[in-house]
Amino acid sequence: MSKNDINFDKLARESGETAQEWVYRALRFAVMSGQVEPGRALTIRGIADMLKVSAMPVREALRRLTSEGALELKSNRRIMVPDLSPARLAELLELRILLEVHAAERALPYINDACLQALRHLNESQNKAFEIPDREGIIIGNQAFHRTLYLAHPHPVSMPMIERIWLQLGPLHRLALANLEKHYMTDRHVEIMQAIETRNPFGLKAAIEADIRDGAGYLTQTELLERYTRAEAGALPTPGKEYMERLVKN
After folding, report:
1. What is the pLDDT of residue 223?
2. What pTM was computed for the model?
3. What is the C-alpha to C-alpha distance for residues 213 and 209, in angstroms, rounded to an integer?
4. In the chain, at which end, N or C, are there fewer CB atoms within 10 A of the end residue's CB?
5. Is 147 exposed, middle or buried (0-12, 13-18, 19+ CB in 10 A)?
6. What is the C-alpha separation between 4 and 241, in angstroms, rounded?
7. Is 65 in the same domain as 151?
8. What is the CATH number of the domain that holds 181?
9. pLDDT tens string 30-46
10. In which domain, by residue range, is 99 found?
11. Which residues does residue 73 pair with via DSSP β-bridges, in sequence order?
12. 31 and 40 in contact (C-beta within 8 Å)?
């Protein structure tokens, strides 16, 4: 495993954070931000070298991520990023839609002006990440936007379940970004904010579902999954400034 495989620049170790918590958070970030592709083997030694820690916290982090469905322990004791069949991917996407539509609808009465302003700021930050382009920034920005919306509810009990789905879908984010220009033609985040401003629960639910389907729903096609081999993953393109300009115009 090369030290350049995973970019931890956006995830500094926090003051007082134990090595165990740091390694878990760092690996969770790597999976959720699409930096490890399906079918990839992870080694304790390789991760320990990247993060400059001992094997023990890495072993515990891998165990936790395996229990959350983000990684898979094979019969030969190898830790792998699971491959996703079209059927499993379709199930995960439908479950994501159900959970996030529910979370958005429940959060709507609690979204105040400060929260809406935070959503606008996060959307602008994600747009800037597209212009660079910054792959991890795009993915992180999208998750931050949705997380901020759902956490407006004082009892966001669905959030851990939503993040578990994000973890399992994370390895496919590179493929989603590479095909975004063909499928994501309307800025659904703008529609989400408009629905919030007008207190329109039906419009909000429709925009959330469209955001997920336009962004990743097409990935259930078998031929697209077959394209996503380990050899191709690193070279997949990322939409840039021209894409954002067209999206804003639409």
Report:
1. 67
2. 0.89
3. 6
4. C
5. middle
6. 25
7. no
8. 1.20.120.530
9. 898 888 888 888 888 88
10. 86-249
11. 79
12. no
